[in-house]
Prior knowledge:
5% of the residues lie in helices and 35% in strands. The chain has one helix at residues 29-33, and strands at 7-9, 13-16, 22-24, 38-39, 45-46, 52-54, 58-59, 66-67, 77-78, 85-89, 92-96, 101-103. The chain has 104 residues and is mainly beta. The protein is globular and about 40 Å long.
Amino acid sequence: MCEMPEILDRADRHECVTCGHEWPHAAAPEARDAPRVVKDAHGNVLADGDCVTLVKDLKLGGGNQVLKVGTKSKPIRLVDDDHEISCKMDGMAIGLKARFVKKA
């Protein structure tokens, strides 16, 4: 889950003000046992080892560098974090949200 202290409490979920990550108030027990499915911006299911490309320019935090739309990643790894994808782009290790990528 997000570690930022600025959280909005909605009727059915929590939302991080900083990154926009959302999660339910209390996950149902059957939802915790189900395998995690991560989908890209177009609804394609992603798996470890897939390559993805950016669908939007992304400004990197901590600097003024921008990853341009169409930048292709090395094979990805899915992680249990608020940023679902861990990969390398342009020689940098980064974490991405699946909504900003499409399967290559």
